[in-house]
Amino acid sequence: LGDHPRRENSMPHTDFDLECVGGGPAGTGPLVAAARQGLFNGWRVAIVEKSEQLCAGALGHYEVESTSRASTFLEALQGDWCTRAARSDAAEALRAYGDGSVPLAVVSFCLADRGRDLSDVVGVDGRVFTRTEALSLRALSPGFAVRVRNAEGESVLTARRVLLALGGAPR
After folding, report:
1. Rounded to two decimals, what is the model's pTM?
2. Which of 25, 68, 93, 127 has the smallest CB count inside 10 Å?
3. What angle do CA 88, 94, 98 make, to 5 degrees?
4. How many Cα atoms are found within 13 Å in the side-chain-facing hemisphere of 134?
């Protein structure tokens, strides 16, 4: 992994143990599960998300009725690492729905808080790249190279493992 040429720009060429491409619910769900189990200890994790925040994705903009229960989302806020989201106004709004269905717009605010908590956990040894678009993925031997672009320019991030979770789009 260390033999890739360094790109000359302000975004560093960096090696990670895991790179998650997609910071919405599909990408951060497995990361949250790993954080709850303490699996990030010693791992350098990178998250690449094209929007400005993690976890929420486009969820709050879907024009569908949610059948998900508020308790399902509240369960995801349990654990020592998720303190900000568990105490947020958005979590309180979720609690008001009890075990009933909750609108996706309410869920998206709570997930955004969870994203900030996840950024704190990942940022200890890794890095969160918001407003960053993944352009390509290439298999290396061993590992992977992901070419990314943001306002600072293009760069290549390498990782031993890659989780691709590009999410969906409302129709």
Report:
1. 0.74
2. 68
3. 135
4. 24
